[in-house]
Design a protein that fits this description.
The complex is a heterodimer of chains A (630) and B (294). Chain A is an alpha/beta fold and 630 residues long. Chain A is 36% helix and 19% strand. The two termini of chain B are 34 Å apart.
Chain lengths: 630, 294
C-alpha cells in the first residue's frame, strides 16, 4: 500500500503569534509538547494559547511522555486535541483504550534498527512516529539511519521525525517505502526553540504538496510498441537507422575490415558457437539465475525479477562479451589483446580471459580511475595484465579509449582491440550486443518457467555505453510488447554540468568511430562526463541505444547519483544483495515508473557492489558509525 | 600568381619543374590563440610550400602526444572553428601559401558541413583532411558538398591499405594522396624498415594523383626518402614540439629546416602572397637540387 497524500506535521509550538502564523500555512498536524524538561513545553501555558485560531483542517496533537490515561483524556477533553502522540512506555492496551477518544500516534526512538516491539502495537494506533533515539524531549536536530525503514513490515502508516530539514524531508518522502505517511518538522525549522520560521515551513509544505516533477505523468508514454519481425541487427555498413557506421581513420580500415569478415564468418558457425556456449556455462557460470525478488516486489506492488549478472565470474556481465571476442582474436591469430576500462570491470574481465587463454593483455585506464578503483587495478595486475594509466584529457574512460585506439593504430598486425561496451566502429556495437544477448535469451526461457510467459512487461537496465542494456533488451526488441527502459547516469543532475546523461543532454555526433548521441559543447568538443559510478561516465551512448531512443522503442530516464545510492541501499536491505552503483541506477527506475500489480518487471542486475564499497561507505557515514560501535 | 587561391595547390602539385614540396602542420590557436596567422606567415615566408592548419579536437585519435597536447592547449586558449575562420578571414581570401584544414569530423559536423565548406572556401582554403571521415561515407553523403564549394578532400593511404582500395582512392582524389609513412599515430618514430618498399610499391602503381608523405617525417633521411618517391612531404610534430618548448616561429622553422637538412632560401617568390612580410626574418629555402648533403 502506498500512502498517497503525505502528512506534514509541525511540532513543538508554544508562542501564540508564531502558532497562528504556522497555522495559516495549513500543515496537516500541529504538535504541542507536554513535557516539562523540554524548552518547547506548554504544560503550564496551554490555557493561554489561542488554539481556536488554528484552522479546523489542522489536527492538533498533544505530545506526551509517559503520562497517565487520565491526563491524556483530560487534555483531549479540555483543549480539543484531535490526537495524542505517546512517547515512553505505554502498552498496546493503553493505546487501544485511548484510541476510543482520539487519534493515537505512538512514537518510537531508533537509530540503526527498528525497535523490536513495533509489531505489538499493530492495530491499536492510527500512526507510528519514528524519531531519533536519545532525544526523548525532541529537537536535537539529529537524524536516524532512514534506510532501516525498508525493514518496516507493519501496516500502520508512520511519520518520520528527527532532524528533518527541507531536503531530507523531500528525499524521505521519495523513498519507495509503503505506509510512509509523512514527516514531522521541528528543530530545523526554528528561529529559537519553540519559534518556527514560517518561511521555511512554507517552502517545505509547498514543495511537498507540489506534484514532484518525475512523478508527473507517465515517463514512458511515448514508447512505440510495435511488433517488428526483426532482431536489432544493423545494416551491412553498421547502421541502426542513422546511427552507427564506421568512422575510422584509414590507419584502422584494414584492421576493422579483417575483424568484420572474421566476425561474419564465425558468429553463426557451429564450432564457434559451441566453444562460446561452453565457456559461458563452465567458465562464466551461466545461466545466471532469474531471481524473484519477493520483498522488492512487495515494496513496489508488482512482480520483480532480478537477472543476476552480478553472479558471473569477475562479478559483472562484462565477461560474456570478453569471452566471445577473445575467441575471435584467437581465430584471427592475434598475439596480444588491448582494452580500455572505466571502472575496471571490463579490464578485469579482459585480463581474466587473457590469462585463461594465455594471451598477453594491456589495459588502458584513466589515471583518475586507477585511483578510484584501486582494487580492480590490483586484480588486473594479479591476472598478469599490464595496466597503463592514461594521463591525457580528462583521464577517464573516454581518454582510455583514445589511448587504446592509438595503441591499436601503432600495432595493427598483432593486436586485437577488445572493446567492452556497445560502442566503437562497426562491427563492434553489433558484436558486443550479440555476445551479451545471452542475457535476454536466458530471461526468456527462465521467465517462461516461472511466469508461463516469455516476455516481461518491463526490462530495466543501466546504460553507460550500453553493453548490459543491449544484452538485456536484445531478444525483446522485436516483440512490440516489452517496455524497455534504460537508466542513464544524471550525475549531480541533468542540468548540473556534472552529468553523464547523454540522451538527455547530448546531440548527434561522431566519436570513437561511431555516429551516435554525444555530450558535446557548441563547438563539437566532447565534454567530460560525471557520474558517481565510474562505469557510466562515458560521454556517449552505443548507436543501438541512440536508435532505440530515436525510434521510441526504448525509453531512457536519467537517474541522479543520490537516487542510485538510495536504490543500492534499498536492494541491500530488502534482498541482501549489494549491487554495483551502475546497476543501482537500473533499480532506481522502479521508483519512477507507474507499475501495476500484474506487471512483470525484470531488472538486469549487471554487477555486484564489492568494488564500490569505498564509495558507499563514504556516502553513507552511518555505516562507518556502525563499524566504530562494533 | 593565380588570382584563384584555391587552385594554387593544384598548381604547386603539378608544377612542371619537378620541384619537391614541403608542407608543415600547425595547430590553430597554439601556443597562443593569436599565433595562427604569424605562424602561417613565417612558414610561408621561409619557403614552406603549403600549410596544414590543424583544427583542434578534444579527442584526436590519430595523433601522438605532442599534437594532442597542442590541441588541448589550443582549446584552452579558446580556439574553435568560428574563431579560426575569423582569424583566417584577415588574409582577405589570399593565404600566405596554399592551405588545408586538417582535423576531425565531429567539430565540422557540429559547425554544419555546408557552413564549414562555405566559410573555408571564403577564407581561401584549398582543401580539407578529415582522417575519421572514411571514403565510403565521403562518397555517399559528403562529396557533393565539398565539390559544390570547390574544396579538395584529401584521403589517406597507409601500409595496410590494399591495392584495390588505393586505386579507388586514386580515382576519387582531386589534389593529392596523403601517404601515411608508417602504421602509427603522428610523431611516432618508427623504424624505416619496410617504408622504402611501401613507397616504391606506391610509386610503381603509377597513380594519377600526386603523393605526399606524412607521419614520421622528422629528419633529413626520412624527408629525402619521401621526396624520392613522392611529390612532397608533410611534417608536423617536429615543428609543434619546438613551439611547445617556447621557440618563436622563426627559431622553430629555422631549427626545423636544419633538422630536415634544408638550407635557407630566399623569400622573393613568396612575397607576392605575403602582404605583411618582415624583411628582418631569416628565411630558408630547400636545396634546389633536393639532394641531402650531410
Amino acid at each position: 500500500m502506498r500512502v498517497q497524500k503525505k502528512i506534514i506535521k509541525v511540532c513543538g509550538l508554544k508562542d501564540p503569534d508564531n502558532m497562528r502564523a504556522v497555522g495559516m500555512l495549513r500543515p496537516d498536524m500541529m504538535g504541542f509538547i507536554f513535557h516539562r524538561p523540554s524548552p518547547r513545553d506548554v504544560t503550564d501555558t496551554i490555557g493561554d494559547l489561542p488554539l481556536l485560531d488554528i484552522p479546523a483542517s489542522v489536527t492538533r496533537v498533544a505530545v506526551v511522555v509517559d503520562q497517565s490515561l487520565e491526563f491524556c483524556l483530560g487534555i483531549v477533553e479540555r483543549f480539543g486535541f484531535g490526537a495524542i502522540q505517546l512517547h515512553g512506555y505505554q502498552t498496546p492496551e493503553f493505546c487501544r483504550t485511548l484510541r476510543k477518544h482520539c487519534l493515537v500516534i505512538k512514537a518510537f526512538a531508533l537509530r540503526n534498527a527498528l525497535p523490536v516491539d513495533v509489531a505489538d502495537y499493530e492495530g491499536c494506533c492510527d500512526y507510528f512516529l519514528f524519531d531519533t533515539a536519545g532525544t526523548a524531549a525532541g529537537g536535537s536536530g539529529m537524524t536516524f539511519n532512514h534506510a532501516v525503514l525498508y525493514n518496516y513490515r507493519g501496516h500502520t502508516p508512520f511519520l518520520v521525525a528527527g532532524g528533518l530539514d527541507h531536503d531530507t524531508s523531500l528525499n524521505i518522502l521519495d523513498l519507495p517505502i509503503p505506509y510512509m505517511a509523512g514527516v514531522d518538522l521541528n528543530s530545523r525549522y526554528e528561529i529559537t526553540p519553540g519559534i518556527k520560521d514560517p518561511d521555511r515551513v512554507n517552502r517545505t509544505i509547498t514543495s511537498i504538496r507540489q506534484p514532484r516533477p518525475h512523478k508527473q505523468g507517465n515517463p514512458l508514454k511515448n514508447l512505440r510498441l510495435q511488433r517488428v519481425n526483426q532482431l536489432p541487427h544493423p545494416d551491412e555498413n553498421g547502421y541502426y537507422g542513422e546511427f552507427g557506421g564506421a568512422f575510422i581513420p584509414e590507419l584502422l580500415q584494414a584492421n576493422v575490415d579483417e575483424l568484420k569478415s572474421v566476425y561474419k564468418q564465425y558468429i553463426n558457425e557451429e564450432g564457434f558457437k559451441n566453444a562460446f556456449g561452453q565457456l559461458l556455462n563452465d567458465y562464466v557460470g551461466r545461466p545466471t539465475p532469474l531471481y524473484y525478488a519477493l520483498r522488492l516486489s512487495e515494496l513496489f506492488g508488482c512482480r520483480i525479477y532480478l537477472k543476476r549478472e552480478d553472479l558471473c565470474h569477475t562479478g559483472a556481465h562484462k565477461l560474456n562479451n570478453v569471452v566471445g571476442q577473445a575467441l575471435l582474436a584467437q581465430k584471427m591469430n592475434k598475439k596480444q589483446i588491448v582494452a580500455e576500462t572505466g571502472a575496471g570491470q571490463h579490464g578485469v574481465a579482459t585480463a581474466t580471459v587473457c590469462a585463461m587463454l594465455g594471451l598477453p593483455c594491456r589495459v588502458f585506464m584513466g589515471e583518475k580511475d586507477t585511483r578510484r578503483q584501486k582494487v580492480n587495478v590490483l586484480r588486473m595486475k594479479m591476472l598478469g595484465a599490464e595496466v597503463i594509466p592514461v594521463t591525457s584529457g580528462s583521464q577517464t574512460l573516454k581518454d582510455a579509449t583514445n589511448e587504446a585506439i592509438r595503441y591499436w593504430i601503432n600495432h595493427p598486425d598483432d593486436t586485437y582491440y577488445l572493446i567492452g561496451s556497445s560502442i566503437g566502429p562497426h562491427p563492434y556495437p553489433d558484436m558486443v550486443a550479440r555476445f551479451q544477448s545471452v542475457i535476454s535469451h536466458e530471461i526468456k526461457w527462465q521467465l517462461a518457467e516461472k511466469e508461463g510467459r516469455q516476455d516481461p512487461d518491463y526490462v530495466l537496465a543501466c546504460v553507460g555505453g550500453g553493453s548490459n542494456a543491449a544484452g538485456a533488451f536484445f531478444h525483446f526488441i522485436d516483440n512490440g510488447f516489452t517496455r524497455l527502459v534504460g537508466a542513464e547516469a544524471a550525475g549531480k543532475g541533468v542540468n548540473s554540468g556534472h552529468t553523464a546523461a547523454t540522451i538527455s543532454v547530448g546531440s548527434q555526433g561522431v566519436l570513437h568511430g561511431t555516429k551516435t548521441l554525444l555530450m558535446q559543447n557548441a563547438d563539437g568538443q566532447i565534454v567530460e562526463a560525471h557520474s558517481i559510478s565510474a562505469g557510466l561516465d562515458y560521454p556517449g551512448i552505443g548507436p543501438m541505444h541512440a536508435w532505440l531512443h530515436h525510434t521510441s522503442r526504448a525509453g531512457f530516464l536519467a537517474i541522479t547519483d543520490t537516487e542510485a545510492m538510495e536504490a543500492a541501499r534499498m536492494l541491500s536491505l530488502t534482498e541482501g544483495i549489494i549491487p554495483a552503483i551502475e546497476s543501482a541506477h537500473a533499480l532506481a527506475l522502479l521508483n519512477k515508473l507507474s507499475l501495476k500489480e500484474t506487471d512483470v518487471v525484470v531488472v538486469n542486475l549487471s554487477g555486484r557492489g564489492d568494488k564500490d564499497m569505498e564509495t558507499y561507505s563514504e556516502y553513507y557515514p552511518h555505516y562507518e558509525e556502525n563499524k566504530q560501535k562494533q | 600568381m593565380s588570382t584563384k587561391p584555391n587552385d594554387s595547390l593544384l598548381e604547386l602539385l603539378h608544377d612542371s619543374r619537378e620541384e619537391k614540396l614541403l608542407s608543415v602542420y600547425i595547430t590553430a590557436g597554439f601556443p597562443c590563440l593569436e599565433d595562427t596567422m604569424p605562424d602561417m606567415k613565417t612558414l610561408a615566408r621561409s619557403g614552406v610550400d603549403f600549410l596544414e592548419i590543424g583544427m583542434p579536437f578534444s579527442d584526436p585519435l590519430a595523433d601522438g602526444p605532442v599534437i594532442q597536447q597542442s590541441s588541448t592547449i589550443a582549446l584552452q586558449n579558446g580556439m574553435s572553428l568560428g574563431v579560426l575562420f575569423e582569424q583566417l578571414s584577415a588574409f582577405n581570401g589570399i593565404m600566405p601559401a596554399p592551405s588545408l584544414l586538417m582535423g576531425y569530423l565531429n567539430p565540422v559536423l557540429c559547425f554544419g558541413l555546408e557552413a564549414f565548406c562555405q566559410k573555408a572556401r571564403a577564407v581561401g582554403i584549398s582543401g580539407v583532411i578529415l582522417p575519421d571521415l572514411p571514403m565510403r561515407e565521403y562518397l555517399e553523403s559528403y562529396r557533393k558538398v565539398f565539390q559544390k564549394h570547390r574544396l579538395h578532400f584529401i584521403f589517406l593511404v597507409t601500409p595496410t591499405t590494399p591495392e584495390s582500395r588505393i586505386r579507388q582512392i586514386d580515382e576519387v582524389s582531386t589534389a593529392f594522396i596523403y601517404v601515411v609513412g608508417s602504421s602509427s599515430t603522428t610523431g611516432n618514430q618508427h623504424s624505416d624498415h619496410g617504408r622504402e618498399t611501401y613507397l616504391k610499391r606506391l610509386l610503381d602503381m603509377n597513380l594519377k594523383t600526386p603523393l605526399v608523405v606524412g607521419f614520421g617525417i622528422s629528419n633529413a633521411t626520412s624527408l629525402q626518402q619521401a621526396w624520392r618517391y613522392a611529390k612532397g612531404a608533410i611534417t608536423g610534430t617536429a615543428y609543434i614540439g619546438r613551439r611547445m618548448k617556447g621557440q618563436s616561429p622563426d627559431k622553430a622553422v629555422s631549427e626545423l629546416f636544419h633538422q630536415l637538412g634544408l638550407k635557407p632560401r630566399s623569400t622573393s617568390d613568396r612575397q607576392a602572397q605575403t602582404p605583411e612580410a618582415e624583411t628582418t626574418v631569416e628565411a630558408f629555402k630547400p636545396l634546389t637540387s633536393k639532394l641531402y648533403i650531410p
